[in-house]
Amino acid sequence: MDNQKDINQIKDSYQLSGNHFISGNFLKKSRIDGTDINIISQPVGNILVVDDNPQNLRLLIAILSMSGYKVRPAPSAALALQSAFSILPDLILLDIMMPEMDGYEVCQKLKENELTSSIPVIFISAIDAIQDKLKAFQIGAVDYITKPFQAEEILARVNTHISLRKTQKLLEEEIERRKEYEEELKAISLKYQKMATQDYLTGVSNRRHFMERAEEELSRAKRYNHPLTFMMMDIDHFKKINDTYGHQAGDQILKNLAVTCLDNLRLHDLFGRIGGEEFSALLLETSFSEALLVAERIRKNVEESLWHIDNKAVNCTISIGMSELNINMEHLNKNDDSFSTKDNLLNAVNKDSQTLDALMNKADEALYIAKSSGRNCIKCR
Prior knowledge:
By secondary structure, the chain is of the alpha/beta class. The protein folds into 2 domains: 3-171, Rossmann fold (3-Layer(aba) Sandwich), CATH 3.40.50.2300; 207-380, 2-Layer Sandwich (Alpha-Beta Plaits). Helices cover 48% and strands 19% of the residues. The protein has 12 helices and 16 strands. It has helices at 3-10, 54-65, 77-86, 103-112, 130-138, 151-197, 207-224, 238-245, 247-264, 288-304, 342-351, 356-372; strands spanning 21-22, 25-26, 29-32, 35-38, 46-50, 70-74, 91-95, 121-125, 143-146, 228-235, 270-275, 278-284, 307-309, 312-314, 318-324, 378-380. The strands form 5 sheets. It has a 5-stranded parallel β-sheet with strand order 6-5-7-8-9, with helices on both faces. It has a 5-stranded mixed β-sheet with strand order 11-12-10-15-16, with helices on both faces. The longest helix is centred in the middle third of the chain and has 47 residues, at 151-197. The N and C termini lie far apart (93 Å).
C-alpha cells in the first residue's frame, strides 16, 4: 500500500488546515479532528501498523506520517509477521480482532523470536474488557489503546514508546560497547601478563617468573616435607650451531628443545628459560631417583631428534645438572621433642641451607661437571 496515496485519499475526508505536501512530507502543522499535529520533515521512527480495516490503516498512516514517522501498513497477520521479520520496526501498532490469526497470536510469535522479541507492541482494539487488556500485557504488549481513538492519544503513546525504545537501544549499544571494551582490556591485560611471565621466543616461563614460582613451591615442599629436584639444562656447542646454521636455526633449536622438555614433564612441574641456551626445571614431589629417569628421557630424546630447519637436518645434545632438596633425617628423632613440631622440622631444613639459590648453585655446579666430562650427560650434586 502506498502511504502517499493513502494520505491523498483522506485529504477530502478530514479538515486539514495550514499545511502543504512536499515530497511526501508535511511542513509546519496539520489539524485532524481538531487536534494540532507537529510536523517533522525527517522520519523519526519506523512503525508497522497492523489492521485488517483499510479505513483504520489510512487514518493511522496519516496521523503518524504527518508527525514524521515512516509507516508500513500490514492489512493481515501473515503480512505483519513477514514485514516485521524482513525489516525490524521500531514499534508495532497491532489490532486484535483479525481473521485467520488474531493480534494476541501475532504478538506471541513476535515475542518468541529473538529478533523481534524486544520490539514494543501497542494493541489497538475496540475491545474494552479488562481481561483482554490484562491478556495483552501478559503476552508482552507495552500499551493498549481502545477504539475509537484520538490522534492526540495515538501520538502521545507512540512518542513515549518510541522514545523509550530509542533509549533502550542506546543502553543496549552502550552495554555492547562496554563488553567489547572489557574484552579488549582483558586481551591487552593477558598480552602484557604473558610478556611479563613468558619467554618471548619459546613461550615458556621467563627467568623471573620461574624463580618466583620456584620459591613458592620450595616453601611448600619444606613445609610438608615433600621431595623436590632441581634441573639445569644447557645446549651443547650452541655457539657452533649458530655459527654453522645461523641464528634463526639456533632460535628454532631453542623452541624445539622447550617443546621436548615440556613433553617429558608433568603439567604441575615448573619449566623455564633461564637465559641464552639454559633451561631449568623444578620437579615437584619427585625424588632424586625418579627425577634422574626423567632427565635421562629428556637427554635421550634430544640426542635422537633430527630437526629439519630451512631444508637442513640439525641435531644437538644437552648436558644436565641436578640437585635435590634434602632434609637431614638423621637428626630427626621421633622421640626427640625438639623435632616434634612443623616449625622445628623447617628449621632442620634451613640448617641444611636448602634455599632456591643453593639448589640452583648445586645444579649449576653439576652442569659444569657434565660439560667438563664430555657433555651430553647428566651429573648430580
